[in-house]
Amino acid sequence: MRQETWQVDATKILTRVELASVLRDLRTKANNSENSRLNLVLVRLACCCGLRVSEIAGLQIGDVHVNRDRPFLRIRAETSKGNRARCVPLWWDGDTLGDLSDWKEHRVREGAKPRDAFVGSLWKSRYGSRLSRHTLRRRFITACKVLGLERLQGLTIHHGRHTFISHALAGGRTIAEVRAAVGHQSLVTTSAYLHIAVDDNGEVGQLFRFES
């Protein structure tokens, strides 16, 4: 039987300029808006860490390890596809590490405990409580509205994961490294992203400052 090839829709990958535009817009607004600050963290987790929406929803304060030489996110088995735990490197990109570290510090100052949600509700009566997948999906689209209505058509939070994989490979991380970070079962799935252009002129570019 012929094995099917995993197909990646390149139009659902945020390009270098698009992702930089989203992050820049959210960072500007985050200075005066906790909602925008939360959305910035959400985009970081989806587009710069490759987390699935279920993994974002299940991420706890204690899963975010930032005060070490090689900081990482711990994805627990019960929140991941296929019940496979993994670690997602945060030391690959300094800006992502900085935004997530700042958010964790903010949540802890607000009284969050290790088992509380990392990305939680901002409603006063439910502050810090876990957000639903539906809410996270809606927030992601709101976070990306700087791209315009036409670009948002068909775009989902899961495309943030595809964006991370494409940018990581374009930035020089190996297939094995990226596979481990996103939890793919097969190298074949990860390698399907190798030739996805992430730069806006059709050439492969780099957004993250991937470090070795």
Which superfamily, in CATH terms, is the homologous superfamily?
Intergrase catalytic core
Structural class: mainly alpha
The helix fraction, in percent, is 40-55%
Major beta-sheet overview = 3 strands, antiparallel
Number of E-type strands: 3
Kindly report the CATH topology: hpI Integrase, Chain A
CATH class group: Mainly Alpha
User: Distance between the terminal alpha carbons, to the nearest Å?
Assistant: 40 Å
Put simply, the count of helices is 9
Q: Give the helices and strands as they follow along the chain.
A: HHHEEEHHHHHH
Low-confidence parts lasting 5 or more residues at pLDDT below 50?
A: 202-207
Q: What is the typical, i.e. mean, pLDDT?
A: 90
Looking across the biggest beta sheet, what order are the strands in? 1-2-3
CATH architecture: Orthogonal Bundle
Q: What is the rounded Rg? A: 16 Å
Write the layout of secondary structure elements.
Blueprint: H1 16-30, H2 34-47, H3 53-58, E1 64-65, E2 72-75, E3 86-89, H4 94-109, H5 133-143, H6 149-152, H7 158-170, H8 175-182, H9 187-191
Antiparallel strand pairs: 1-2, 2-3
Can you put this structure into words, describing what you see?
The protein has a single domain, classed as Intergrase catalytic core (hpI Integrase, Chain A, Orthogonal Bundle). It is globular and about 45 Å long. Residues 202-207 have low confidence and may be disordered. Helices cover 43% and strands 5% of the residues. The chain has helices at 16-30, 34-47, 53-58, 94-109, 133-143, 149-152, 158-170, 175-182, 187-191, and strands spanning 64-65, 72-75, 86-89. α2 packs across α4, α2 crosses α5 (133-143) and α2 packs across α7 (158-170). A 3-stranded antiparallel sheet has the order 1-2-3. With 212 residues, it is mainly alpha-helical.
